[in-house]
Design a protein that fits this description.
There is one protein chain. Strand 9 (109-116) and strand 10 form a beta hairpin. This protein folds into four domains: 2-202, no CATH class; 207-363, no CATH class; 367-461, no CATH class; 469-515, no CATH class. It is an alpha+beta fold and 528 residues long. Helix 6 packs antiparallel against helix 7 (218-232) and helix 12 packs antiparallel against helix 15 (451-461). Mean pLDDT is 94; it is low at 1-5. It starts with a strand and ends in a 34-residue tail after the last helix. It has helices at 14-18, 54-60, 64-68, 70-76, 145-161, 206-214, 218-232, 241-265, 316-330, 340-364, 375-386, 393-404, 415-418, 427-445, 451-461, 469-480, 485-494, and strands at 2-3, 10-12, 36-38, 48-52, 81-82, 88-90, 93-96, 99-103, 109-116, 122-128, 143-144, 167-180, 189-200, 267-268, 290-291.
Length: 528
């Protein structure tokens, strides 16, 4: 069924026209030796628009009239298509938890088309939870409301923080129930279904390149790489050996900067498989993610990873480099079997990560980095100290700007910083923290721009509001009861994470005791 748009929209077919597809149009699970399969979304019973990202809609050229048009809801639910859309599911592989998993593909994501925005930029629109595809294996291709709310909110929250990310345009309730075993413990439940419309310049992943390479299909690998360079990295030049090497270095640098931003903001992705790594350096596939509250490098919100903790917070930089090495190995045939480009790529990753991480941590501490000073030592000493006790890192760093504005160093731990502890601080730890504050304050006073400017810069670098898991779970619990006001309020507040917003002070608090072990707050799974 094709419905006219409420306003002219132009779709292009860069991916479909340039790259080979699967001749079989059935939804049957199978091995596919192509890069995509044509598949339409499966219509849902009672689609209802639950949430909408107005800033993203404006970038796409969708106004309020389009939002309110029933035809838009039908399209974003997978019940209809706008003219020019050509839905498909992508074929890719990946390493999952360190093991080669073979063919994976879009098992519940279906790309509707590539929309040309008012500024000429192209945006891929993709529905997550739109029904089965040839890559669904034994799955139903659907998603539940709880995971969809989390993806919708976090996509937009990360964008507001300035972290490269895929976006979310809409959240649709399907009016249908989906059966999920949330913790894979033999207790399946019926849950309300939902669909998120995800948006990105491209959803290409490391795994897109790994699969043809693993099969020895070098022509297909070369065709995909040439398309990717020509479409998304044209500044690298015409495809060829030197350009392929430059391509890996550029992906490495983007990935290094991305992971550095995760670390600086305390974001834990939860499942950093190679099929969840964007070739464009975007945060992609929001599943069992979480935010560091007390600083714990072994923290993972993903119950599937509790034993190995492969994707724990402190392991993300190493895992990012490991994944990049797998991409480099996939591209090895294009390097003529030479491994030197892979080593160069890994070096670029490390350099980009180090530079970005240092810059971000300095910004958060109000410092203009001086390689000849002890700034690196100041950063490392703080990180070490924060691990020693349960201090809410988000609040502590945000409130540190208050100390930066003091004319002289504090002689006791300020009260608003003391309030960031989850339990009474141990005296020795408190003394070490105060000593650090005094050394850091002296360094801030040495800033040529002045203390006030440094403190203002800190407020622009330390968010007051992030999507803590317990906040997301409160919104989910209310939504399950039919009340979406908490989700809408969170969306509005998270769009301005660096602003004070005194009327929303209750959303900038420490994790409550009830959330310490509550499912959905401390423990999550890949189930959605």
């Amino acid at each position: 069924m094709s419905l006219p748009a409420s306003a002219p929209r132009r779709f292009v077919r860069r991916f479909l026209d340039a790259l080979p597809g699967d001749p079989d149009t059935a939804r049957t699970s199978r091995q596919v030796h192509a890069l995509w399969s044509r598949v339409d979304p499966t219509p849902v019973a009672e689609p209802r628009l639950l949430a909408w990202s107005q800033p993203l809609a404006a970038e796409l050229g969708l106004d309020d009239a389009a939002r309110d048009d029933a035809r838009t809801t039908a399209v974003l639910a997978g019940n209809a298509l706008w003219d020019g859309m050509a839905p498909y599911a992508a074929c890719y592989g990946g390493h999952q938890f360190g093991n080669w998993a073979g063919q994976l593909g879009d098992g519940r994501a279906i790309t509707l088309g590539e929309l040309v925005g008012p500024d000429g930029r192209v945006h891929e629109l993709q529905l997550k939870g739109a029904g089965p595809t040839p890559y669904s294996r034994r799955g139903d291709g659907r998603a539940v409301l709880r995971s969809s709310i989390r993806e919708f909110l976090c996509s937009e929250a990360m964008a507001a923080l300035g972290v490269p990310t895929t976006r979310a345009l809409s959240l649709i309730g399907t009016g249908e129930q989906v059966v999920r075993d949330m913790f894979y413990d033999g207790n399946p439940q019926r849950e309300p279904g939902a669909i998120v419309c995800r948006v990105a310049p491209s959803f290409l992943r490391f795994g897109n390149f790994e699969l043809p390479s693993s099969r020895g299909d070098v022509p297909l690998l070369r065709q995909l790489t040439d398309f990717t360079i020509g479409t998304f990295f044209p500044e690298l030049g015409a495809p060829g050996p030197a350009t392929y090497e430059a391509f890996l270095r550029e992906v490495a640098a983007r990935t290094g900067r991305l992971v550095a931003q995760w670390q600086a903001h305390g974001f834990v992705h939860g499942v950093v498989n190679t099929d969840n790594m964007s070739i464009l350096g975007l945060t992609i596939d929001y599943g069992p993610y979480g935010w560091i509250e007390p600083l714990d490098y072994q923290f993972t919100p993903n119950t599937t990873d509790f034993r190995e903790r492969r994707y724990a917070f402190g392991n993300q930089p190493t895992v990012g480099m490991w994944n990049l090495a797998r991409l480099g190995e996939a591209l090895l045939p294009l390097f003529g079997g030479r491994e030197a480009p892979i080593e160069e790529g890994l070096a670029h990753y490390q350099e980009a990560f180090r530079e970005m991480a240092t810059d971000l941590y300095c910004r958060r501490l109000g410092l203009t980095f001086d390689a000849h000073s002890d700034d690196t030592t100041i950063i490392h000493e703080l990180q070490t100290w924060l691990q020693e006790a349960e201090v809410d890192v988000i609040l502590w760093l945000r409130r540190l700007s208050h100390v930066a504005r003091m004319p002289s160093a504090p002689t006791a731990m300020p009260a608003d910083l003391l309030a960031c502890w989850y339990a009474a601080p141990e005296p020795g730890h408190l003394a070490r923290g105060l000593a650090w504050l005094q050394r850091w304050h002296a360094r801030v006073r040495a800033e040529t721009r002045g203390q006030a400017a440094a403190a203002d810069a800190m407020d622009r670098a330390n968010p007051k509001f992030v999507l803590r898991n317990w906040l997301a779970q409160e919104a989910i619990d209310a939504a399950h009861g039919g009340d979406l006001r908490k989700a809408h309020r969170l969306l509005g507040v998270l769009r301005r994470p660096y602003d004070d917003q005194p009327e929303h002070e209750d959303l900038a608090q420490k994790r409550p005791d009830w959330a310490r072990h509550k499912p959905g707050c401390a423990t999550l799974s890949c189930s959605s």
